[in-house]
């Protein structure tokens, strides 16, 4: 119990009500083991979150503060947002953020609509060529993107869409894996309800929109989140397809900032925080779906 | 009953199934399957970005054999698999064991450990570029404890090692979640029986946990080895677009990007390198799966 008070001081009242720490099977966890676990957890925490906090700290340090000191100073002596203003003066960072937001939003909409429709067709509708269609999506999922990126680029050039945000979105706008995820979600639904609706005269669109789709909201949320994160974080493809600095997304803008002002660590740090903050906020709100997506994606991928 | 019901729908709305599948099929066909086929075809041409190109047979592949940069890329991408896969198979499993027990605050730790997965590789890369800088945090700490400064980002091999460390750091949380799901399926009775028999924690890990999550370890091995061979961003960001000192840290995908893009891009030659990437990727998958089957028998 004394251990608990040390490591979880803010939650003292809760601990007082529950004098023993038990695991998920209701078995008591020994104090020695508990201490060891928290020590290890805090060590890993320092390793995983520490680098982000160091970047945040660097971005808040003013021009007169020594960022190279040894031993290092972890907290900014006189925190300032000056570097964030400087990022906006150096590159059109808010335009880049808007471009990233456009690309990510478009990717979410197209992936949700496209993969729900195709997934439903593969799972529920009976038509000639369904097996071929399923196979096409499975093959597409297995193709390594990095290997076809040059051909994707020449395809975009042929369509005249290189150096446009549409060109950034198009290749991944209906991911084959998302289609297969939605297909499995639809396959797992009990068929009887749709059967009943069919008997009542509902056509395929009505059954899809009113019965099947509302039942797979969870998987749809996973598709949406991974589409957003994938587009927001993507680097190689926008790097290849975008050449005009006014069209850059945040990741490409950040790479450009680093390439041009590598020696200005405070500036680059502020830029990275701008790029990562929205996603960390999104993750904090919707963790459940992030974790669920890993499980579902790994089984398929 | 179900079958006859659906076939009646087909008569009702003959076009709708294809209408449902059309957008997905169109995108997949145009931007994944067509580029895949066109990569295979281009590999046998001298196509450039602005020049259509002609069939040249195996000339690109013959040139590859003579190209030092290709061998450098193949070496680095292979080393990357060897360096990154073992830690990515083992460490996340240990991490999953650490966060498995529902002790107070554990959901916070799980989420915190996952944060590097959520961040863009560019953000992660630039964070580590600054951490590993000659005057960065890691070197400050090394100096504080009396060790000398290390040129993580100037030496060819240290650069590659640093990039591998970044890959492992970013991947830990992802594979941790995969293992966590697998660990939930390990019967508790097995652990208890082993404990009754006097097996310690390490012994129980090796005789109960590892065999129980073996198929997940194979999955993680397959996923991480394929991803590692295609490494681009980590090395690009840490070593720079030209791949470190004299390009010695170039990976295969970096070489594809460098050779095939831009107005003078050698599409044919870059496609030939891509074909090598395909072949090795498929080979890696088969290798991991075969190792799995062998162990099983």
TrEMBL record, chain A:
It is a multi-pass membrane protein. Keywords: Cell membrane, Membrane, Transmembrane, Transmembrane helix, Transport. The chain crosses the membrane at residues 35-54, 103-123, 135-154, 160-181, 211-232, 267-286. One of its GO terms (cellular component) is plasma membrane. One of its GO terms (biological process) is transmembrane transport. InterPro entries: MetI-like, MetI-like_sf. Residues 97-286 form the ABC transmembrane type-1 domain. Residues 1-22 are annotated as: Disordered. It is found in: Cell membrane. Belongs to the binding-protein-dependent transport system permease family. This is Carbohydrate ABC transporter permease. The lineage of its organism: Bacteria, Bacillati, Actinomycetota, Actinomycetes, Kitasatosporales.
From TrEMBL, chain B:
InterPro entries: ABC_transporter_permease, MetI-like, MetI-like_sf. The keyword Transport applies. Its main location: membrane. This is Sugar ABC transporter permease. The chain crosses the membrane at residues 18-37, 79-99, 111-131, 157-182, 212-232, 267-289. Belongs to the binding-protein-dependent transport system permease family. It comes from the Bacteria. Keywords: Cell membrane, Membrane, Transmembrane, Transmembrane helix, Transport. Pfam families: BPD_transp_1. It is a multi-pass membrane protein. Gene3D superfamilies: MetI-like (1.10.3720.10). GO terms for biological process: transmembrane transport. The keyword Cell membrane applies. Residues 74-288 form the ABC transmembrane type-1 domain. It is found in: Cell membrane. GO terms for cellular component: plasma membrane.
């Amino acid at each position: 119990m004394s251990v608990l008070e040390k490591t979880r001081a803010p939650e003292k009242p809760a601990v007082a009500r529950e004098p023993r720490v038990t695991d998920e099977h209701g078995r008591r966890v020994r104090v020695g083991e508990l201490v060891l676990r928290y020590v290890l957890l805090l060590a890993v925490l320092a390793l995983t979150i520490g680098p982000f906090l160091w970047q945040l700290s660097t971005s808040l340090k003013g021009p007169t503060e020594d960022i190279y000191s040894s031993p290092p100073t972890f907290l900014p002596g006189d925190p300032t947002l000056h570097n964030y203003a400087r990022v906006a003066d150096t590159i059109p960072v808010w335009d880049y953020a808007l471009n990233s937001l456009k690309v990510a939003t478009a990717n979410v909409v197209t992936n949700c609509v496209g993969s729900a429709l195709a997934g439903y067709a593969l799972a529920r509708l009976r038509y000639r060529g369904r097996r071929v269609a399923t196979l096409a999506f499975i093959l597409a999922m297995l193709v390594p993107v990095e290997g076809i990126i040059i051909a994707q680029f020449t395809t975009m050039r042929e369509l005249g869409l290189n150096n446009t945000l549409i060109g950034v979105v198009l290749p991944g706008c209906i991911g084959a894996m998302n289609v297969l995820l939605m297909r499995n979600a639809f396959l797992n639904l009990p068929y009887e309800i749709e059967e009943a609706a069919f008997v009542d005269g509902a056509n395929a669109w009505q059954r899809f929109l009113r019965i099947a789709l509302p039942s797979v909201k969870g998987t749809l949320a996973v598709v949406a989140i991974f589409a957003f994160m994938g587009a927001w974080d993507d680097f190689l493809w926008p790097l290849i397809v975008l050449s005009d600095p006014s069209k850059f997304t945040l990741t490409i803008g950040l790479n450009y900032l680093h390439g041009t002002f590598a020696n200005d660590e405070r500036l680059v740090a502020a830029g990275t925080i701008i790029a990562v903050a929205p996603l960390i906020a999104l993750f904090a709100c919707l963790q459940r779906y992030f974790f669920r997506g890993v499980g579902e994606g790994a089984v398929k991928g | 009953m179900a079958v006859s019901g659906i076939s009646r729908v087909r008569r009702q709305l003959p076009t709708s199934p294809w209408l449902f599948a059309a957008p997905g099929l169109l995108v997949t066909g145009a931007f994944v399957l067509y580029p895949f086929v066109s990569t295979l075809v281009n590999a046998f041409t001298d196509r450039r970005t602005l020049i259509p190109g002609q069939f040249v047979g195996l000339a690109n592949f013959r040139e590859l054999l003579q190209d030092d940069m290709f061998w450098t890329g193949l070496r680095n991408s292979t080393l990357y698999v060897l360096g990154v896969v073992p830690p990515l198979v083992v460490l996340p499993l240990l991490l999953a064991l650490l966060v498995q027990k529902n002790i107070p605050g554990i959901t916070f730790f799980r989420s915190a450990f996952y944060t590097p997965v959520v961040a863009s590789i560019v953000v992660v890369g630039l964070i580590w570029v600054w951490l590993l800088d000659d005057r960065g945090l890691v070197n400050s700490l090394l100096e504080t404890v009396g060790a000398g400064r290390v040129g993580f980002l100037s030496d060819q091999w240290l650069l590659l090692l640093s990039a591998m460390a970044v890959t492992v750091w970013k991947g830990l949380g992802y594979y941790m979640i995969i293992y966590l799901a697998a660990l939930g399926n390990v019967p508790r009775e097995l652990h208890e029986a082993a404990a009754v028999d006097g097996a310690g924690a390490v012994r129980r890990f090796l005789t109960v946990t590892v065999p129980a999550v073996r198929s997940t370890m194979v999955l993680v091995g397959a996923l991480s080895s394929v991803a590692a061979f295609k490494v681009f961003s980590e090395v690009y960001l840490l070593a720079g677009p030209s791949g470190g000192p004299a390009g010695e840290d170039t990976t295969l995908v970096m070489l594809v990007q460098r050779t095939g893009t831009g107005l003078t891009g050698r599409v044919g030659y870059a496609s030939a390198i891509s074909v090598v990437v395909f072949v090795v990727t498929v080979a890696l998958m088969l290798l991991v799966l075969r190792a799995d089957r062998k162990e099983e028998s």
